[in-house]
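Hey, I was hoping to borrow your eyes for a little while. I've dropped the whole record in just underneath, so have a look:

——
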Amino acid sequence: AYNAREEMGICSLSEVANSAEMWENYAGSFSGYCIEYDMREYEHASDILPVVYSDERNTDIFSAILDGLLGKFIFGMSAGKIATDKSQYFRLFLTKNTIWQYQKEWRIIGNANEKIKSPKIKTIYVGENAAPENIEKMKLYCKANGVELIQHGMEK
């Protein structure tokens, strides 16, 4: 359980692209960008899990350690026939306080050292305070890859 934070990787996604709070907190006060993915044919779509928002978030690491020890006990007692996995720790990574509910977050959880193929990019939203050279780079990328670019809330 203690090592799960180092051994498990998290990719955070959101249902919303137009949240002022998220643009402020995660995109450098509207100077960054937001990528919208096309999930219709994404091979790992079934691995994307919703975040549960609750005021009673259970992130008790000692409880997770106890669960892990119990899992090792079961593995040992079954002579290796009943294996436990890291999914018992998912609740630590899929629960957030209700103050973050506006994020409408989903997560892909996997092994930290394993890279999976990303979904196809559908749209790139560029923040209104993005550097002009970054906007030009995004325009070139979008044109070359058939990706829609939305800047300052208007389609380009």
